[in-house]
Specification:
alpha/beta; binds nicotinamide-adenine-dinucleotide; 351 residues; nine-stranded mixed beta sheet
């Protein structure tokens, strides 16, 4: 029997969830909910969902719905996820898990009480390049990974709307882009325990909506008039096993346009994960760069979401454990909120 899915929040990212659900042979897209009714209707028509809601509580009251994707603003993730779990639904919640540590712990408790699956939408874990690399790491190819460095510097790319409103987003590029980078490095390093974080945030350039001739990702309700989030954040994270991670992210910066860059360094070899998977090693006194031959050496959104959703559906059916459980979402929130706190206080935060 097919499982029935509801999607809550019908904005930009919901399309990736819906495309993946639509292509999945064991899924029926049953319902769509958005506070913007027209947007919910449009998606429902496109993806063949028969029920449309503007109040997520009505969707959650439908007894035949097995699971939901939560694709709303960050400030609603905890509330909707907890309500969904309490209504007996499995949950795939977009990143970040929520806005605060207090919320994160409440979501974790709701998962424990309900016994339902909650998968955090850290989609890069599900990328084909990460999956392949993880096998190499698990076989000890790189030895101990003791350093990682990740960067996502957008020259121009404040998505505006709720992303730029700290009340609804919880922050700027750190919570939006940094969450992906910190997660993928921490996951591939073997999820070491966090010892301390030290960070800086800057709000110097505004959203630069005046700039012409360049396109960038925008929230469904783009609004350039409001901006209360940082433009740039950087951080150094120390782990109890001695490993460290350096990260910097921006929505805008007077610099060259850069894509995502992720590198990890081990005792026996190194890794460039992004922009494209490459392995660096040494043999016969020679440094080698190896390029795994595969369809998606770079992170591919469609492949990543298809894999994330297939994993969620399998976890709902009890066939496997989710790859990104709530506990990982809580640890990520600890690092993210710790970095913001460190920037606020101007000193390192120790856990
Ligand atoms: N995994 C990724 O790579 C990725 C990429 C982009 C966004 N996201 C995440 O996805 C989420 C949504 O981002 P987006 O870019 O789609 O934003 P968006 O603004 O395009 O869409 C959000 C939608 O949620 C709706 N909404 C807000 N509160 C609601 C509520 N209480 N009930 C029902 N609908 C509600 C809005 O009306 C809007 O249509 C965010 O948490 C964001 O961090 C993830």
């Amino acid at each position: 029997m097919k499982c029935r899915i509801g999607v809550i929040g019908a904005g930009s990212i919901s399309e990736f969830h819906l495309d993946a659900y639509k292509a999945h042979p064991d899924v029926e897209i049953a319902a769509i909910c958005d506070v913007n009714e027209g947007r919910a209707r449009e998606r429902a028509e496109k993806y063949g969902a028969s029920r449309v809601y503007t109040d997520y509580r009505e969707l959650l009251a439908q007894p035949d719905i097995d699971g939901v994707s939560v694709c709303t603003w960050n400030n609603t993730h905890a509330e909707i996820s907890i309500a969904a779990l309490e209504a007996g639904k499995h949950v795939l919640v977009e990143k970040p898990l929520c806005k605060t540590m207090e919320e994160a712990l409440r979501v974790q408790e709701a998962v424990r009480r309900s016994g339902k699956v909650l998968q955090v939408g850290v989609v890069r874990r599900y990328g084909a390049n990460t999956e392949l690399l993880k096998r190499f790491i698990d076989h000890g190819e790189f030895g101990e990974i003791y350093y990682a460095k990740a960067s996502w510097l957008r020259r121009l790319g404040n998505p505006g709307g709720w992303f730029a409103d700290i009340e609804r987003s919880g922050g700027g590029p750190l919570i939006d882009l940094g969450v992906h980078l910190i997660d993928i490095c921490w996951y591939l390093m073997g999820k070491p325990k966090v010892k301390s974080v030290s960070g800086n945030t800057y709000r110097k350039l505004g959203n630069r909506a005046n700039v012409k001739h360049l396109e960038y990702y925008k929230a469904a309700d783009y609004d350039p008039s409001f901006n209360t989030v940082e433009d740039l954040a950087n951080a150094l994270i120390r782990f109890e096993n001695g490993a460290s991670l350096m990260v910097d992210v921006s929505f805008t910066l007077h610099g060259e346009q850069q894509g995502v860059q992720v590198s990890l360094y081990g005792e026996r070899g190194g890794i460039v994960l992004e922009p494209e998977l490459k392995i660096i090693t040494e043999k016969y006194d020679t440094i080698l760069e190896l390029a795994p031959q595969m369809d998606h050496p770079a992170f591919d959104f469609n492949q990543g979401f298809a894999s994330e959703i297939a994993w969620f559906v399998a976890a709902m059916a009890g066939e496997k454990e989710t790859l990104s459980p709530v506990g990982d979402g809580v640890e990520l929130m600890k690092m993210l909120t710790g970095i913001y706190e460190s920037a606020r206080q101007g000193k390192e935060i120790r856990f």
